[in-house]
Write a structure and sequence with these properties.
Distance between the termini: 23 Å
Strand order of the largest sheet: 1-2-3-4
Largest sheet: 4 strands, mixed
Shape: globular
Order of helices and strands: HEEHEEH
Helix content: 25-40%
Radius of gyration: 14 Å
């Protein structure tokens, strides 16, 4: 979960554990989803799927923007988000194309 104050709350998914609505006390969040790390602890894939919260490209842009500002190489990631929350169509951007996608989406949202 990424809160509006840019604080991250990360936990291993355990059924029945604290949910992002509890973390934010029911207030707005910038983004929520899942990520995967390799055996070396390096983040490899971000997925914008979080149960009932269905992030779109807007929330993914928010999350990637914060990672970028923190110096993270977002271009090394796979990024998957929902193109359409109703149809559940998803899009995956492969490593090497994420930075271009991010700047294109950011420009479209301005």
């Amino acid at each position: 979960v990424l809160l509006p104050n840019k604080k991250w709350y990360i936990q291993i998914k355990v059924k029945g554990s604290i949910q992002h609505t509890s973390i934010s006390h029911g207030k707005s969040i910038l983004a929520s989803g899942r990520f995967f790390v390799d055996t070396q602890g390096k983040m490899t894939h971000i997925l914008g799927f979080s149960g009932h919260y269905q992030p779109t490209n807007i929330q993914m842009v928010n999350m990637l923007g914060v990672l970028l500002k923190e110096g993270f190489d977002i271009n090394s990631l796979y990024v998957t988000y929902l193109k359409d929350p109703i149809t559940k169509d998803e899009i995956t951007i492969p490593p090497g194309k994420v930075l271009h996608w991010y700047y294109h989406q950011k420009k479209m949202l301005e």
